[in-house]
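Risk register update: the risk of archive-format incompatibility is retired. Evidence:
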Amino acid sequence: MKIVTAAEMRDIDRATSERFGVPSLVLMENAGTAVADFVLSEYAGARSVGVVCGKGNNGGDGFVAARKLLEAGREVRLLLLCDPGDLRGDADAMFRELPLKPVLARSSDDFRSPIALAVFDADVLLDAVLGTGFRPPVTGLYAEVIQHFSQVRAPIVAVDIPSGLDADAMDGAPTGPAVPACATVTFTAPRPAHVFSPVIRGPVVVAPIGSPEQAIQSSLNLELITPRDIAEMVAPRPRDSHKGMYGHVLVIGGSLGKAGAAGMAGMAALRTGAGLATVATAQSVLPTVAGFAPELMTEPLPETEAGTISLRAREYGRLDGIIQGKTVLAIGPGISRQTETSELVRVLVKSSQLPMVLDADGLNAFEGRAQELTGRPLVITPHPGEMSRLAQLSTKQVQENRLQVARDFATRHGITTVLKGNRTLVAQADGKVWVNPTGNPGMASGGMGDILTGIVAGLLAQTTHSITAVIAGVYLHGLAGDAACEQTGEQSLIATDLLAALPEAFRRVRAEAEKPTVRFAA
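Archived output:
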C-alpha cells in the first residue's frame, strides 16, 4: 500500500472526482461513514459520542460521522469551532444535513462555557478539528481545544489524523499541541506520520472511500506492507503437494555456545513452509542442533579450536557437496566472528549463486568490506549495530536516518536490505522501501533475528518472487511476535514463542487479506 504525502492525497481526491467521476461529496460521505462504523464496532457499548469539528473538510467528515452515529441510535453532541457561515463547499453541504443543533465556539470565551465543555463529557470523542492538510504549529482557539482533549478520560478517535500533527513528518515530536488519540481512521492511503510518528497511538485504520488504484500516486517510493501484498505466500496449497515443491533450505551456522541460533533458523524455515531444512554446523555442536527438533536434518563440518566452522569445510568439496541440490542458503546464525570462520563466510558469499540470506556474524564478516557484497543474490538482515559496521556509520547515525541509510545501502550494492528495528524497513535495489507495521517491544530479545532469517529463507525457497517472500517474512515474523505477545506479555516473550505462533500469523494474514480496510498498530 502506497504511503503518500498530504499534497498527494489532495491530488488523489481531485483526480478521483475529475478523472474517475466520483463526486467529492461521495468521498466525504464514505469517509464519515467509515469513522462511524469504527466507533460502532470498537466502542459498541458507548451510548454518547462527543464530536468536535473544525471548519475544513475534516470537520465535514465529522458532520457525516455524527449523522451516522445518530442514525445508529447514539446520543451525539457536536461542537463546531466556527460560525456556520464560515463553512465552505462539501463541509457546508454536510453541515446542512445534520439532524442536530451544534454547540458553537467562535472564540476562547465561547469554548470555556459549560455548554461547550459538556460536549467532552461523553463515552467516546471524535477529533475532527484538523486534517492532514494542516501544517503546524496550531495557535489560538484550535490550540486551546486540542490542549483540552488531553484532559479528558474518554477514548478519542481521530478523523484522518490526530489534530496538531504534521501528516508528512517522518519522525520526531510535534511542534505544538496534538490530540492524544487512542485510534485513528484515515482514508485511501496512509501518510508518513500515520506510519512513523511516535505520537500516534493505538490502531490506525485505512479505509477505502472510492478512489481507484490508478488515482493513487506517490513520489515517496515508500510502501506499507499489508496482508494483501503477501497473500500469495499464504495461499492454500494444491492437493498433490509434496515436499520437493517447497524447496530445501540450508542453514550454515552455529558454534560452541551458539548452537541454538542455527537450530531456531532451521525450524523457522520449516514452520514457514519450506519442504526441507538442513543445518550444517561445527561437528562438536551438531548433537545440540539435532536435538533441537526431530524434523531438522544436520551435517557436521570441520571446526576450529574455538568450536566454530573451519575454512577446511571447503576441502575436498565437502561443503560444496552439501550445498548441491539446495534451494536457499541462510548464513550467519550463531556462526561467530572467529577469523577463519569469517573468511569461510566471505568465500561462500563470493562463490555461491544460490539465493542467500545473510545475518548476524555472517554480516559482521564484511565489516569494512561491504563492496564484496555488491551484486550478489543476497538478502541481508542487519540490526542497527550491524548496519553501522557495514555502512561505516555510527549506530546513532543509522537510527537517525534509517530510511535513507537502508535505501542508500540497497541501491549502492544492489542487494535487498532489511534494516531491523521499530518499523523494520525492507529496501530494494531499485530504491523502493517497504515499511513493516507488525512487531512489538517484547521482541527485543535474543534469537529473534535467527527466527527472521529462517522465515525469510523458508519463504524464498517456495517462490521466484523474491521481494514478496522477503516482505512476507518480515510481516509474518512481527505478526507472530504480536500473536505470541498476547499470550506471554512483552517481558516474557522469547524467540521460540514465535515458532509456535507462526500458524496463527498465517491464519491472520489469510483472514485480513480479503478485507477492504487495512489496520495496523501505531
